[in-house]
Amino acid sequence: MLNLLGLPLEASTHAGELDHMLVLVHWLMLVLFVGWGAFFLFVLVRFRKGANPKADYTGAHGKMAKGVELGVVLAEVVLLFAYAIPAWAVRVQAFPAESEATVVRVIAEQFAWNVHYAGPDGRFGRTEITRVAADNPIGLDRTDPAAKDDIVSPNQLNLPVNKPVLVHLTSKDVIHSFGLYEMRVKQDAIPGLDIPVWFIPNRIGEYEITCSQLCGLGHYRMRGFLNIQSAADFQSFIDTEVQALTAQ
Ligand code: CUA
User: Fold this and answer.
1) How wide is the angle at C-alpha 40 spanned by C-alphas 53 and 49, nearest 5°?
2) Residue 198 C-alpha to ligand 1 middle, in angstroms?
């Protein structure tokens, strides 16, 4: 699913802004590329050996160079301060309140994405590395009252549409990178760190979680699924998972 620019579908509220920035940067690069190319050709002809039999050690002096350099600097300053830094500041500072967001933990490992939901009580149960086992990938302590209704969903991240999402991202082993292309989200998952990531999905659909950091032999198959659902469908996903827990 690609849009007109050949980019992935835009499925989060900040995706359009990011793509706009990308387009502006490419316009600047196009101008620089064509400009430098033309200048190069001009220099090849103007300073050819036939026209300059004697070397000139003082070189050529033009007034235009300064103006062009200033123009490029100005364009880059505008891109940085008017677009990039404000967009970045929103990502790293304007986090939604936990009470108004869908809060999930995502724990990366070689080679899977483990998704941890707090369940109906809204509290994440305790996890301990010593409890990690084949059937307990995040080491959840089910004896903890807060953990009783917790949902662990390997490689499947379901989220409701049009509601802020707050992901607490970490890794069990090595550095991975949590890549949600349609959400325009990419963040390294680092062992020992809990890194918050937020976005607002605004398009129902089935997408992928891709690992975007070479993390071992199975990096290529470290793929999860992201399902953006209606609020009702998301609720029924949670209900089904909780029912499956109590049936055990
Ligand atoms: Cu995990 Cu690449």
Assistant:
1) 10
2) 20
Cis status, amide bond into 111, omega within 30 of 0: yes
Q: In what order do the strands lie in the sheet with 195-199?
A: 151-154, 112-117, 102-109, 165-171, 195-199
Distances (CA, A) of 30 to 36, 69, 111, 173: 10, 16, 39, 41
Quick: pLDDT tens for 20-78. Answer: 999 999 999 999 999 999 999 999 998 898 888 888 788 777 788 888 889 999 999 99
Q: Is 222 in the pocket of ligand 1 (CB under 6 A)?
A: yes
CA 155 – CA 234 distance, rounded (Å):
16
For residue 141, give Cα distances in angstroms to 86, 109, 118. 41, 18, 13
* 7-18 pLDDT per residue, tens: 899 999 999 999
pLDDT per residue over 79-132, tens digit each?
Answer: 999 999 999 999 999 999 999 999 999 999 999 999 999 999 999 999 998 999
Secondary structure (3-state) at 200: coil
> Could you identify the atom of ligand 1 that is nearest to the CA of residue 214?
2
Q: Atom 1, ligand 1: which residue's CA is nearest?
A: 176
Question: What is the rounded distance in angstroms from the CA atom of residue 35 to the CA atom of residue 65?
Answer: 12
With a 6 Å cutoff on the Cβ, whether 171 touches ligand 1 is no
Please tell me the distance between residue 101's alpha carbon and the centre of ligand 1 in angstroms.
Answer: 27
Please compute the mean of the pLDDT values over residues 218-236 and round it to a whole number.
97
